[in-house]
Specification:
Elements (H helix, E strand, L loop, with lengths): L4 E13 L11 E13 L14 H8 L7 E6 L2 E2 L5 H9 L8 H4 L6 H5 L3
Antiparallel strand pairs: 1-2, 1-3, 3-4
Length: 120
């Protein structure tokens, strides 16, 4: 782990409770993400790559605060992402870029990758 990480993901876990028929609660859970850790330095581009169903989208959503985490920590610029209020969460989301799984639909083919995701 880097000392100067802009984004630090440490032992991130995301667990979903599995539903049952007729609205009964279930104690069964699905571990979508289990103890994932990585750092991203300022100015560094990173690709999250894996098989379908491996948790790439869930990790991205957890970083953005769109799904709750069940373990680990997320820090952006030294601040705990889970402790953002609505205003600081909106500001945080403006500073984070996500390129969705299908680049042919997500990116303009007339632009270079650098111009599409290099700056806001």
């Amino acid at each position: 782990m880097s000392e100067h990480a802009l984004l630090r993901v440490c032992d991130l876990s995301v667990t979903y409770r599995l539903g049952t028929a007729f609205g009964a609660s279930s104690r069964r859970v699905f571990e979508a993400v289990k103890k994932v850790s990585f750092d991203i330095e300022a100015g560094q581009g990173v690709a999250l790559v894996g098989e379908s169903g491996s948790g790439k989208t869930t990790i991205s959503r957890a970083i953005l605060g769109l799904v709750p985490t069940s373990g680990g920590s997320l820090e952006f610029d030294g601040r705990d992402v889970s402790r953002h209020d609505q205003a600081s969460l909106a500001s945080f989301r403006r500073n984070v870029q996500v390129v969705f799984q299908n680049p042919r639909l997500s990116l303009n083919p007339r632009r270079t990758i650098h111009s599409a995701i290099g700056s806001v």
